[in-house]
Amino acid sequence: MRITRAELTKTIYTPGQYEPFGLPEIAVVGRSNAGKSSLINRICNNSKLARVSSEPGKTRSVNFFTINQAFMLVDLPGYGFARRSAAERRQWAELIEGYFAKTEALKHLLLLCDIRHDASEGDLQMVQWLQYYQIPYTLVATKADKVAKSKRPMRVAALARQVQAEGRLAFSATESLGKEALLEALESTLDKKDIKNFKEPVTRS
User: Fold this and answer.
1) What does R_g of the chain's alpha carbons equal in angstroms?
2) Beta 71-75 vs 62-67: how paired, if at all?
3) What end-to-end distance do the CA atoms of the chain give, in Å?
4) Is the distance from CB of 36 to CB of 75 less than 8 angstroms?
5) Per-residue model confidence as pLDDT tens digits over 97-134
6) Could you give the count of Cα atoms lying within 13 Å of 137 in the half-sphere of its Cβ?
7) E strands of the chain, at which residues?
């Protein structure tokens, strides 16, 4: 799959604002500094599509991007921001779990974990939610360029065991490592008719 169209369609701040779009959804989630925005921008070939926050945990909304007019890429707010108040963390939990409980279009989720570190408490809590709501997910071990090539398989395998993920891959937004594999993984979660119904715009010379 090649992403040629990507646009921010809607941003919600409470579960009650969510309404179905009539398209399948694929979500992205991870710690505040796991590299969600960088991943989204890299696979969509648009460095300004998802805003990279200067302060981890600052963004507390769910952003919906329409991709190729075929599916929604759902950017869930990052977790693990220790400096946030208990009320803010509770609001985050209500927003995320409210979305999981309400959506019927979510086909798959990408769980982002920094390849250099073991899974966090927040990662393990997310896994519990995914298992409870029966949401299939793939581990994406981000910032793979920060680890020696020879050590990447071992680190990815260790993280996969910790978050109980069957699907896994290493990714680096800086070097585009794993980009094609990730796009293939996204395509495999969608119905073939969704891909076929999208027609790339004709470029006129």
Assistant:
1) 16
2) antiparallel
3) 24
4) yes
5) 999 999 999 999 999 999 999 999 999 999 999 999 99
6) 29
7) 6-12, 25-30, 62-67, 71-75, 106-114, 137-142, 167-170
